[in-house]
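Query form — protein Endonuclease

QUESTION: What is the three-dimensional structure of this chain?
INPUT:
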Amino acid sequence: MSKSTLAVIAAVSAATGAAVTAAMYSLRSSDKKTTEIITTSTKTLIKPPVGAAAPVSASQVFSSTRTAVPAAAAALNAPVNPAGLFEYGFPGPVSDIASRQALISSFDRRLRNPQWVVEHITPASLAARDGDRKNSAFREDDMVPDKFRAKLKDYFRSGYDRGHQVPAADCKWSQQAMDDTFYLTNMCPQVGEGFNRDYWAHFEDFCRRLTNTYPSVRIVTGPLYLPRRDPQDNKFYVRYEVIGNPPNVAVPTHFYKVIFAEDAKSAAGGPVAIGAFVLPNAPIPNEKPITDFEVPVEAVERASGLEFATKLPVQRRKRLCADTTCSLVIKEYADRQKAFAKGGGSRLN
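ANSWER: The structure tokens for Endonuclease are given below.
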């Protein structure tokens, strides 16, 4: 068995045992009132400045299809025109893309979770202290239509944390950036004790410490819903809890981070250190090495249906954990969390 295969199998295993799930995938291969919304038939783009653009109709997007398809159908003497349905609207799927100071996110309306959230951290951004989470509050994202939106009440007494994908601790450089991280479009239900408040927090700290070595670190984070073998019939199933009343928000089985660490030569066409990690949404012992969860980027792509480095040539890529030490600092971070809690604060992510 190859080293990469072993890495993938290890990557989705923890004390709770979600072992071979990702292996299957790797073996083959702002005040928001001033936000502008641009809607197309395939996605909604939310970005500054002021104003809201009128939705672009499906007939506009499919104008070439509307003329070409009937013409082709007539030439073939076809008795049907499926594209005519688009006169009434395009079904989707729709991804709500929000571009904010702190992050860019893509929201999955069906699962009520982000598909991915992108952030950029630097030594300068982490050194700034112009934002305070005491002045921030969790909020629903009114840029997502109400019927598709994750609600605050969905998390109430659910047993899960509102888990940041882009941590608040990464965005202290402005209060607006800090506030941006508290939209529910930047949240997923996460196991609290042993994960969101522990191992995942240490992992986020590891990402910040990468700026001690690299002047620019770009991170994409998101949920996964991976299959697991049922011991009774030996078949694989994708099963996840759904919280809310009515049940709306899917509870991911795993989370991924894909990290792009850039040095001074990267902007000039030099190498970029890439690391991909998949962690189960479950308690993980703090002593477990983060390298046990390292996987090939292709494993995350196959599991998520996303692509992360299509424009980055293979010859420019290097493995992050071969370029630097990938390890968590548990005691130091835990002590800081305890000190913060004594001061009346809460989880720093």
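ADDITIONAL NOTE: Residues 5-44, 48-59 have pLDDT under 50 and may be disordered.
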